[in-house]
Specification:
Blueprint: E1 3-8, H1 12-23, E2 28-34, H2 37-47, E3 51-55, H3 63-71, E4 80-85, H4 93-99, E5 103-106, H5 111-122, H6 130-139, H7 160-170, H8 175-182, H9 186-200, H10 205-214
Parallel strand pairs: 1-2, 1-3, 3-4, 4-5
Helix pairs in contact: 2-3, 3-4, 7-9, 7-10, 8-9
Amino acid sequence: MAIRVLLVDDQPLLRTGFRMILEAEQDIAVVGEAGDGLQALDQVRALQPDVVLMDIRMPRMDGVEATRQITGPERDGPAKVLVLTTFDLDEYVVEALRAGASGFLLKDAPANELVQAIRVVASGEAMLAPSITRRLLDKYATHLPSGEEPLPDTLHTLTDREVEVLKLVARGLSNAEIAADLFVSETTVKTHVGHVLTKLGLRDRVQAAVYAYESGLVRPGAQ
């Protein structure tokens, strides 16, 4: 079955461009469009998309609040949110990830990256672009813990190896890269990541990365 996508952006020209790219793919169907967050909520309820391609800055209701309502505990359907950002202006991206977005993508990303991001998010995985993730978290370092605060008690539920894996996830490494770094198999890494998410009550790798920074386990700019 085709992946059902809802396009949310206040610029009609951008929505048209995204539609042309996505409708060229046999496994993706654009089921609707919205020009702001309020319209997006209505469209999600009416159309039940699998993925919402969500702009951040929009009139009436921005993408952060819309994401929070779409992915919150009283959500109406299974929609995942992929946030669109211009990066250099969007200080709300981390807030959107915290609100429940499954990842983010730059608006000027190549067409193949947009298509791949839609597929990744639809499959239930997080779209965590390593280089952009590092830059985003470094950019907002002043809003994150300095590393001097005590670590939260929830971290003590993790084993030493799970803490290692969480740190590497936060730095944007893929399962294959983590496996190479720790000299274990990818299957083992997937198991560790699953345990981390379960123990910390997190939905995906994106939330795990944000948690690691917010808790002070990983400090922006550190290697």
